[in-house]
Amino acid sequence: MGLLLSTLQLIAQEVILFDEAACPQIAEQTDQAPQLLSSRCEYCTAEDLRIVLRKGFEMKKSKAKVTIPVKVKLRLLVDDEGALAGVLFTDTYAAKIKEEVLERLKKEDVSRFRPAQADDAAVCSWTDAIELSYGKYGFRSEIFQVVQSMPRFPGCEHNGSQEERDKCAREKTRAFLYDRLVYPEEAREKKIEGVVVVRLIIDEEGNAVYPTVLSDIGGGCGAAALAALADMPRWVPGAQGGRTVNVYYMIPVRFEL
User: Fold this and answer.
1) Which ranges of the chain would DSSP assign to H, the alpha helix?
2) Is the Cα torsion angle 55, 57, 60, 66 positive or negative in sign?
3) Which of 21, 104, 140, 211 is the most exposed place for a label (fewest CB within 10 A)?
């Protein structure tokens, strides 16, 4: 069984606050994380939330030839009175999943917690991380590594030769990336430099989907690279044997101080 999404739109790390005034200060270090009041045991909150948020999600039988797991990692923000104040999606995730999680949070009884404790006082803080799996994103045809005509960033279709179009597309990809890239504060403080390698799938319609960090250098650089590559325009898809196909595409992201 698998969830077959026609277009898997991916979004980078995002915080959604339900009540901006509820947590003027958020404790990053606590003696005890928030606990769901209805949880089965003292350390079961993350697992119980995972079960609640995953329950009842509509699964569809996939006829896809290639499938990739659709997952999301998140943390919930709980104020010092135990009320749900927000949600942090901690990794790149599918927009479809964000909608489902937010809808589930409205419907299910996950609004009351024992607040986090720090120095014997209730504080506003995040729950432990929760990882959810929502089936698979399906591709109805093979995903190629190399094809006769590789995918190209848009805007270079009228350049002269194939070589000129490819060069133009690489330059436009770099411009898009580095105009949006934000050097993580942790990486700056630790003087981390290097290259993060991100792999995308450019599907047969030119959508840039399912970005994955293949090589990270730490300090938040992987997440920053994914954020910079989110919401890309539709590419010129790759082609093989006269038809458009799904193609893996690697993008190196350099971080230099």
Assistant:
1) 45-54, 95-107, 162-180, 185-189, 221-229
2) negative
3) 21
DSSP annotation of 203 reads -
Amino acid found at 8: L
pLDDT in tens, 1-33: 233 333 334 445 677 777 778 888 888 888 888
Nearest in space to 246 (alpha carbons), one of 140, 164, 115, 131: 140
Q: How far apart are CA 61 and CA 113, in angstroms?
A: 36
Residue where the block lists tokens 């038809």: 243
For 54, residues 6+ apart whose C-beta sits below 8 A from its C-beta are: 132, 133, 134
Report pLDDT digits (tens) over 171-180: 999 999 999 9
Beta strands (DSSP E) in 106-220 are 113-114, 116-118, 121-123, 125-126, 130-139, 143-144, 194-202, 208-215
Q: Which amino acid is at 141?
A: S
Which residue type does 109 have? D
Task: Look up residue 143 and give its amino acid.
Answer: I
Residue type, position 22, single letter: A
pTM confidence score:
0.56
On whether the CB atoms of residues 128 and 49 are closer than 8 A, the answer is no
Tokens of 188: 């700056």
Amino acid at 44: C
Range list of H helices, 31-73: 45-54
At position 139, the amino acid (one-letter code) is F
